[in-house]
Design a protein that fits this description.
390 residues; alpha/beta; Aspartate Aminotransferase, domain 2; Aspartate Aminotransferase, domain 1; 2 domains; seven-stranded mixed β-sheet; 15 helices; 15% strand; binds pyridoxal-5'-phosphate
Length: 390
């Protein structure tokens, strides 16, 4: 690459500028081989013996992500869940873990129903409030503090730098689920975090056609060595084709994320003043609880995710929940589906997905803003809100 260190957007666009040595191709080949030749003297000088954890097609995606996050090393996993659970599986029974009350639903479920059964002492706290973290952390006993910011589905903001100071003073490691922020907007390792996790299924790949997860570490710690062993031995690895697609997806990460952020900000502003909307939850709104902290640790935008709370129909005296479900039923351009971070905009009645115990109120619709025309998205949603009133 250029002599002067280039900006992250340039690193992503060229996927570090790697070129295939053999052919000089600027797009690297997909390696599908599961095994590699051993040298005649019984060594593996290539450094590769078996593709479960030594797949050459992982290298570029992992290197790009390490550069974007400013870390030491990265690992690809078969899904975001495989990446996240590998962090917890590197701990020992009886270790104390703090996790947020508002967080990605499936991981919360796994922590409640599997990790605790397996011996971890998991405590859920209001992670957005540093005083709660100070109160709950047990010096020498708490091994891991798990943060998600902005957090599903209320977009609760957690101050990464402040949380890291509190956690590190107590001897705990901090891992951040940065799926929604992406390395475009936030670099948790620079703020003190030890590990960053992504569901690469979302913004990193960005095209709703790959399930993948990643971890990036600030240093080659003993914990990172255990995480590598978890991946190699439990074997939750990505396929070659998916790893290659992920590298391709990350090349357009910056324009996709920045476009979605600008659109989400405009959509949030529009519906914050809308008579059929009771509340807009978006970190980029000055009225939002976490706005000041978000402005401190997010750069270039406040993410492409927001939620709206729909007012009940005055005409039919219906509830906000039925108006929300009817709104989702009446959109055309927005797609009624779960997931987030793709180029197409998605809308979802979140309480229906999460079920009992969800922090999502019944009148809440979660919006993942894609890269369509902003006014088309506003018009479609506005029309659906009006139809839901009748
Ligand atoms: C989707 C998601 C996950 C889980 O990732 P998968 O790739 O679906 O396994 C974890 N955290 C967040 C914030 C997510 O949005």
């Amino acid at each position: 690459m250029a002599a002067k260190p280039v900006k992250p957007a340039s690193i992503a666009a060229q996927a570090l500028g790697w070129v295939d040595d053999k052919t000089r191709a600027i797009v690297l080949p997909i390696h599908t081989s599961t095994t590699f030749i051993r040298d005649a003297d019984n060594q593996y000088r290539s450094g590769r013996g078996y593709a479960r954890d030594q797949n050459p097609t992982f290298d570029q995606a992992e290197a790009v992500l390490t550069a974007l996050e400013g870390g030491r090393a990265s690992l690809l996993f078969a899904s975001g869940m495989a990446a996240a659970t590998a962090v917890f599986q590197s701990l020992a029974p009886d270790d104390h873990v703090l996790a947020p009350q508002v967080m990605y639903w499936s991981l919360r479920n796994w922590l409640m129903n599997f990790a605790t059964h397996w011996g971890l002492r998991v405590e859920f706290i209001d992670m957005g409030n540093p005083d709660e973290l100070r109160r709950a952390i047990r010096p020498g006993k708490t091994r891991l503090v798990w943060i998600e910011t902005p957090a599903n589905p209320l977009w609760t903001i957690t101050d990464i730098a402040v949380s890291c100071d509190i956690a590190h003073a107590a001897g705990a490691v901090v891992a951040v689920d940065s799926t929604v922020a992406t390395p475009v907007l936030t670099r948790p390792l620079a703020l003190g975090a030890d590990i960053v996790m992504h569901s690469a299924t979302k913004y990193l790949n960005g095209h709703s056609d790959v399930i993948a997860g990643t971890l990036t570490t600030r240093e080659e710690s003993a914990m990172w060595a255990r995480i590598k062993t978890v991946r190699a031995q439990i074997g939750g690895v990505l396929g070659s084709f998916e790893a290659w697609l992920l590298t391709r997806g990350m090349r357009t990460l910056f324009p996709r994320v920045l476009g979605a952020c600008a659109s989400a900000q405009a959509i949030a502003g529009h519906f914050a003043r809308h008579p059929l909307v009771a509340e807009v939850l978006y970190p980029g709104l000055p009225s939002f609880h976490g706005n000041a902290v978000a402005a401190k640790q997010m750069h270039g935008g406040f993410a492409g995710m927001l939620s709206i709370r729909v007012r009940g129909s005055r005409k039919t005296s219906g509830s906000g929940e039925s108006a929300a479900i009817a709104t989702a039923a009446n959109v055309e351009l927005w797609k009624r589906a779960t997931s987030l971070g793709g180029v197409e905009s998605l809308i979802e009645h979140r309480a229906s997905v999460e079920g009992a115990g969800t922090p999502a109120p019944g009148d809440l619709l979660r919006l993942s803003v894609g890269i369509e025309d902003t006014n088309d998205l506003i018009d479609d949603l506005e029309h659906a809100l009006e139809l839901a009133q009748s």
